[in-house]
């Protein structure tokens, strides 16, 4: 007869097994710790001005708390980690990339407008009209610095600008300054207080070669006058005042005190611009709509290379699937030959390329195809007297890629074809032999029709993989040789994925917005292939 906790006087919610109860409390503590960690990430991203990431972790934390705190959602707890991982590492990066494609996000438009304004306001410049010559003196207490004014604006007859006026007001006519013993060791800025000099400097002056030896330490010195004016090293023998270059105005503009010009925030381009239209870097990202997509198809310097790379990407993926299928199918058919001995040995040897890491094989082939020292060219030179430029000629470079990728991919097709051929009933071949059918009849009437249907989804998956085969391009050719006349880094052997990478990380401008637009187009194409694959797989089932 079964008993319950209630019949034994135990509370209903308590388990008869202490280990189960402790495990439940441990899981609850783990969930609570994860929620707190996510909330900490939300606060950290919010304080660092990253609202999108803060919102992401807020949603994840809220979902985690809701799913693991409600009993009626218990069945969803087991799949929640997978869904959360997909949202964090797949869906969010995808949406973030699509969002970037509608902006001018790049190396020159990277910071927010507030951070750009703050960075510009923190810039200083040296006021050369109030320079001080300096001399180092060695004393018993250490090395002292003595500065002496070299000239005044009124003596040169020039107009006094705002920077000069500020420097003159801070100096108050003082022409000579001195310091106490100054630190000349260590790294990083060092602030030293200076005061007006009375009388001649004390100590022995150091020679020029000794001053040059202390140059790095002198460049780190920040000399502050009693009125707060800062002097920095402006040359091998000079210090000059450091003044704030930009001044914020009430209307949001910035005044450039050094060049006497006004900077207006242009929120269409994401830059502060002058009256002449000159853009001051850095800028901030702004929405540009479909401009990046329009550049791909309308800008001739981008459209030409893009179309060429687009066509080559489809050709590369398609020819790779065709060549690997042909080699794999032929070898699989030979391995099914009844009169062939040592099938196990041949099968092992033919599958070995699949066991070697791809990047090792690619680097070995890169050395073998070397134009001057590679084994392939040495053989061709010995037999035919030619040394093909595998890495400089576009068509030879593409042929090399197809050869190497066929070598890397045929073992996979070999395994697939071997399994499918072995599943074909032997009775069909016996009936064909009775009817007088030969090897070609068996190939085209029995073998190919029976294996091509289950192979089709796998061939589409292989096509999609090679469509984004970044590793092969990056390690073997790097996309070279380059396409002449392209305004972005583009090579004749680039695939769309490597082309996108080069625009985002190897171009001087690092145009992330344009790269994101191309990546979005790649996603649409690969997603279409995936949907086609699923539909075909469903039909086969």
Automatic annotation (TrEMBL):
The keyword Membrane applies. InterPro entries: MalF_N, MalF_P2, MalF_P2_sf, MetI-like, MetI-like_sf. The keyword Transmembrane helix applies. GO terms for molecular function: ABC-type maltose transporter activity. It is a multi-pass membrane protein. The complex is composed of two ATP-binding proteins (MalK), two transmembrane proteins (MalG and MalF) and a solute-binding protein (MalE). Belongs to the binding-protein-dependent transport system permease family. MalFG subfamily. Part of the ABC transporter complex MalEFGK involved in maltose/maltodextrin import. Probably responsible for the translocation of the substrate across the membrane. This is Maltose/maltodextrin transport system permease protein. The gene is malF.
């Amino acid at each position: 007869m079964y008993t319950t906790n209630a019949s034994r006087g135990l509370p209903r919610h308590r388990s008869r097994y202490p280990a189960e109860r402790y495990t439940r409390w441990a899981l609850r503590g783990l969930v609570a710790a994860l929620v707190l960690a996510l909330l900490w990430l939300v606060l950290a991203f919010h304080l660092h001005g990253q609202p999108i990431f803060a919102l992401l972790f807020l949603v994840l934390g809220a979902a985690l708390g809701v799913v693991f705190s409600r009993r009626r959602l218990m069945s969803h707890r087991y799949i929640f980690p997978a869904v959360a991982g997909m949202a964090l590492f797949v869906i969010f990066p995808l949406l973030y990339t699509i969002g970037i494609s509608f902006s001018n996000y790049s190396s020159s438009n990277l910071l927010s407008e507030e951070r750009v304004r703050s960075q510009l306001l923190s810039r200083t410049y040296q006021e050369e009209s109030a320079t001080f010559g300096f001399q180092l003196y060695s004393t018993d207490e250490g090395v002292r610095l003595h500065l002496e004014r070299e000239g005044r604006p009124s003596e040169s007859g020039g107009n006094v600008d705002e920077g000069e006026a500020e420097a003159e007001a801070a100096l108050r006519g003082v022409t000579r300054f001195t310091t106490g013993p100054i630190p000349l060791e260590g790294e990083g800025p060092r602030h030293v207080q200076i005061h007006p000099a009375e009388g001649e400097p004390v100590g022995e002056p150091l020679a020029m070669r000794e001053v040059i030896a202390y140059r790095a330490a002198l460049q780190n010195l920040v000399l502050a006058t009693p009125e707060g004016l800062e002097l920095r090293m402006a040359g091998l023998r000079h210090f000059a005042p450091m003044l704030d270059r930009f001044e914020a105005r009430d209307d949001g503009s910035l005044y450039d005190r050094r060049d006497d010009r006004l900077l207006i925030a242009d929120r269409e381009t994401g830059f502060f611009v002058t009256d002449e239209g000159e853009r001051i870097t850095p800028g901030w990202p702004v929405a540009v709509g479909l401009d990046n997509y329009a550049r791909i198809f309308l800008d001739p310097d981008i459209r030409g290379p893009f179309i060429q790379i687009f066509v080559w990407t489809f050709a590369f993926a398609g020819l790779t699937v065709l060549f690997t299928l042909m080699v794999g199918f032929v070898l699989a058919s030979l391995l099914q030959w009844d009169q062939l001995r040592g099938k196990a040995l041949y099968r092992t040897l033919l599958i070995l390329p699949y066991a070697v890491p791809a990047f090792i094989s690619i680097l070995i082939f890169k050395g073998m195809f070397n134009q001057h020292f590679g084994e392939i060219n040495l053989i061709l030179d010995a037999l035919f007297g030619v040394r093909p430029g595998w890495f400089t000629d576009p068509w030879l470079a593409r042929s090399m890629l197809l050869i190497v990728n066929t070598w890397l991919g045929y073992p996979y097709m070999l395994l697939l074809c071997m399994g499918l051929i072995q599943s074909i009933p032997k009775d069909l071949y016996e009936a064909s032999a009775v009817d007088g059918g030969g090897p070609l009849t068996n190939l085209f009437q029995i073998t190919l029709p029976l294996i091509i249907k289950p192979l089709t989804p796998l061939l589409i998956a292989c096509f999609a993989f090679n469509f984004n085969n970044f590793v092969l391009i990056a390690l073997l050719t790097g996309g070279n040789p380059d396409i002449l006349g392209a305004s972005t880094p583009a090579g004749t052997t680039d695939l769309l994925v490597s082309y996108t990478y080069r625009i985002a990380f190897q171009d001087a401008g690092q145009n992330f917005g344009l790269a994101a637009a191309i990546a979005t187009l790649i996603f649409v194409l690969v997603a279409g292939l995936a949907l086609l694959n699923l539909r075909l797989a469903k039909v086969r089932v």
